[in-house]
Every structure is written in C-alpha cells, then in structure tokens.
Design goal:
This protein is of the alpha/beta class. Helix content is 39%, strand content 21%. It has a single domain, classed as Glutaredoxin, CATH 3.40.30. A 5-stranded mixed β-sheet has the order 5-4-3-6-7. A two-stranded antiparallel sheet has the order 1-2. It has helices at 2-18, 56-65, 68-72, 89-98, 111-117, 148-152, 155-165, and strands at residues 27-29, 35-37, 45-50, 76-83, 105-108, 127-131, 137-142.
C-alpha cells in the first residue's frame, strides 16, 4: 500500500509539473497608447505584475524589478498592469516618474486581470506571474508572509533563474 501511495504522489507531481497553464493573451495600451501583446514577449521570460499606484508593497517591488534588467538583460522582460478604474492616467504617470520605472505600465479595465486571476472578487496586489519563453505560467505569487522574499528580497531572482533553466 505504501508503494502504491508513493507512485500515486509521484505521478500527480509529474502531471502537475507538465500541465502548466497557458498564459492568457492580451493587447493593452500603456500611457503613450502603445499596445503591448503577450506574443511580443515570446522567447523571453516575462515578469507580469498586477499593481496599484497606492500600494506600498508595489512601490517596494518596483525597486526589486529595477534590478531585473541589469541582471538578466534582454532574456527577461517586465510588464506592470494597473486597473484604470482604480488608477488614473495621472496617478500612473506620477508613479512611473516617482519610482523611475523603465518598463511599460499597461492600463487594464479589469478583463485581463480577471483572465489571469480567474476570480470575480478582484485581486490582491501586488500579484506577479512568471511566464516562460513559450507562454506558460511557471510562477504565481501574491504578496503574503510566505512570498515576502519574492517581493522584498532576492527570491524573485531565484524564481527567474528556475524558469530560465527550464529551456
């Protein structure tokens, strides 16, 4: 019975590892009305952050994200997404300027967030997805005590390294 249980658990782990969820497609504008499409980032690991300009954890995470491009160059891209129902274009521009953000901040009306988070209740922010070079979600992180190192430490880099090593 113990061997059967071990085989069953190993099989379940193998199947779940192979069945990564395909990242939902999107085409959203940034503040300059340049559209960004998920397909534009094929071949790169994508860090996709759902954020809000008034979120203190999002502001701290912007500092972590600023370290990604110097560390990984063009192997990793970053997109932030905010909901225009909670953040105005002026608030977004002030946030980008104040945090010296060099990656696109896209404006969503909630449809993209819903397709990723799959919840009608909305989302807690920050919420981050790591998407591999083939368009599959390999990491899904919401800020809490168990993910503190991802959002405020070096944990994001370890997770990016794992995704990059899957190629």
């Amino acid at each position: 019975m113990r061997n059967f249980l071990a085989v069953l658990l190993c099989s379940a782990a193998l199947v779940s590892a192979q069945n990564a969820r395909r990242a939902p497609g999107f085409a959203l504008p940034d503040a300059q009305l340049h559209f960004h499409d998920l397909a534009d980032y094929r071949g790169k690991v994508l860090v996709l952050e759902f954020m809000q300009t008034t979120c203190a954890h999002c502001a701290r995470f912007a500092e972590i994200l600023a370290q990604v491009t110097p560390k990984y160059g063009n192997k990793v891209a970053i997109l932030a997404v905010t909901n225009v129902n909670t953040d105005s274009p002026a608030q977004i521009a002030q946030y980008v300027s104040g945090h010296k953000i060099g990656y696109p901040v896209l404006m969503d009306q909630g449809q993209m967030m819903f397709s990723y988070i799959l919840s009608p209740k909305g989302a807690e922010v920050p919420h981050v997805y790591l998407i591999d070079a083939n368009g599959y979600i390999r990491g899904d992180y919401v800020y809490d005590m168990s993910t503190h190192d991802i959002f405020e430490g070096k944990g994001l880099f370890a997770e990016i390294d794992k995704v990059l090593s899957r190629k």
